[in-house]
Prior knowledge:
By secondary structure, the protein is an alpha/beta fold. Helix content is 42%, strand content 15%. The protein has a single domain (2-231), classed as Rossmann fold (3-Layer(aba) Sandwich), CATH 3.40.50. It has helices at residues 15-25, 46-62, 75-86, 112-118, 120-126, 128-135, 140-152, 177-186, 210-222, and strands at residues 2-4, 30-31, 68-73, 90-96, 164-169, 192-197, 228-231. It is globular, with a radius of gyration of 16 Å.
Amino acid sequence: MLIIHGxxxxxxxxxxxxxxxxxxxxxxxxxxxxPGHERNLSKVKYREWVDKSEEYIKRLIKNNYSDIYLLGHxxxxxxxxxxxxxxxxxxxxxxxAPAYNYLGTVDDNxxxxxxxxxxxxIIKTYGKDEIISRFLKMNxxxxxxxxxxxxxxxxxxxxxxxPILILQxxxxxxxxxxxxxxxxxxxxxxxxxxxxxxxxxHDLFRSKKDALVFKIVDKFLNYxxxxxxYYL
Length: 232
C-alpha cells in the first residue's frame, strides 16, 4: 500500500493507520513526505508533488509489486486518483476526504489561508499550535499551486475503474461532503462505496472514530464493500 498525505500535512496524519495495516494485515505500507512539506513550501511547484508520488509508485512496480493499494488523503486523494487512472497495477483505491471541492468552493478568489485560520471547527480539529506550525510552511503562492493541482486533475475521477472506497467526515470544513459525492458520482468503477462518518472532521485518521475508520479500510482491502452510500 502506498499512502499520500495532504496539503500542509505529513506522514504523521496517517501514521496510526499505517501501523495498523502493517501489524494486522501483513501489508507492506509505504509513505513519504511530499516535496517542501518537511520544511518550507515557498519554492515548490505542484508538479513536484505529483512527480514525487509517481516516482514512488514506479519504484513499487519496479520492485515487482503487481497488486498495489493506493490511499490518498485530501490533496493526496486528488493525486492518488490520477495515479490510479494511469497505472493498472493499482487494484484498489481509498480516498479520504478528497479535496476536489475544498472549503465549499473552487473559486480562484477565495482567501484560503484566511478561511482556514478563521474557521473555529478547523482550529478545534487540529489545535491552534498545529495550525500555526502548518502555515509556517506556506506562503500565498503555494495556495495557488494547490488550486492549480486540483484544476489540472479535477476530471480524472471519470477515468477510475478499479474498486474504490471514499471516506468523508460530515463535519469536514476543509473538503466538503460534496467533494466525495462528486467522486462517487463520477467514477466508472462497478464497485464503489462512499461512507459518511457522523461527527468526523477532515482529520479522519486521528478522530474519535479512528478505530472504526481503520476497520473500514481493513475490510475494504481484504473483502470489499457492497456498492452504495452509507452513514455511520
